[in-house]
Amino acid sequence: MGSALDPAFRLLQEHAHGFMVSQVLFAACELGLFDLLAEAPGPLDVAAISEGLGASPRGTELLLEACVPLRLLDVDTRGGTARYANSELARAYLTSRSPTGQRAMLRYLGSTTYRCWGHLADAVRQGSNQYQRAFGVPAGDLFSAIYRSPAERLQFTRGLQEIWSVDGRRVLTAFDLSPFHRICDLGGGAGALAQECACVYPGCHVTVLEVPEVVQTARAHLPLQTEGQVGFREGDFFEDPLPEADLYILARVLHDWSDEKCSRLLARVHHACRPGGGVLVVERVLDADGRGPLATLLGSLNMLLQAEGRERTAAQFRALLAAAGFGGFALRRTGGVHDAILATKALP
Ligand code: SAM
Ligand code: ASE
User: Fold this and answer.
1) Does 306 contact ligand 2 (Cβ within 6 A)?
2) What percent of the chain has pLDDT over 90?
3) Which phi-psi region, left, alpha or beta, contains residue 96 (left: φ > 0; alpha: ψ -120 to 50)?
4) pTM value?
5) Ligand 2 pocket, residue 299 CB under 6 Å
């Protein structure tokens, strides 16, 4: 019997190899493993899976084995031959047919985001995102860098909307938004959150304001089901007149930008907002002391690598909103991935 391994050393090992776990997930998705198993009539053995994926039996076997303790796959070893099937997690979130599937986001994280994270030390040294190093594109105009090609724009837009099938209802019901009839989702992507909003509040109309390229991408590739209640408007929220509304939604928009740009945007929103109206900020909000949750601190580093902003505490959001003229600040922790903040513009 050896002596117990130092828990600190165990933790170090876990941290050092954490990226391998992500890569197993990304590779299995990229290879189409979960869709193959979803479409099979029952559990499959290594030979059938490697043939179905067009992959080597040796590589397939090793990948499948790693997926089991990660709870991506279930294995049945009765009869001497291992047969694999999707786990509950994989059925819900990793197949194309699932309405809560997250494959496009995983693809984006595994390609663009992963490459940016390869330059983390450089980003920390420089204090800025790594599009120039990782992809050779100038980072000065943030969304020109993020949307460096039409394929990349589609992948980002498609990837970002998937979370709302899981987390949308929670953030939209954190506050009773039924008093707000005209809603404008600023930087609302392909309209997935707007669509969820239309379902939760049948009395509202949501206008998604987006840059023209994203509106065109959404219309061509990601059509909406709530045609009457959700519409798109092409424009730049830093420059163009904002649609008149009772409520403005800013979901994962403020975290992209510096305090200075957030202030500019919020001042414009306050100017356009009807008195008695408000703004719903949807973000992962840092703990009051700024020390967690870890996932949100990693999100901040991701904004360093891929954008110009950071994640913020409730007090930081409150200060930005107050400087723009908004009062009546309230934060709701939803228990989901994102939290909701509602602030209002006072009646005269
Ligand atoms: N709100 C969506 C969500 O949470 O799924 C998308 C969030 S994404 C991180 C930020 C969005 O802001 C992108 O869809 C981007 O196209 C949009 N955006 C960036 N700059 C913009 C601008 N100047 N005017 C309008 N939209 C902009
Ligand atoms: C952004 C969101 C994301 C900008 C770049 C991004 C995501 C990945 N890359 O606004 C999805 C959300 N994930 C994180 C860590 O923020």
Assistant:
1) yes
2) 97
3) alpha
4) 0.96
5) yes
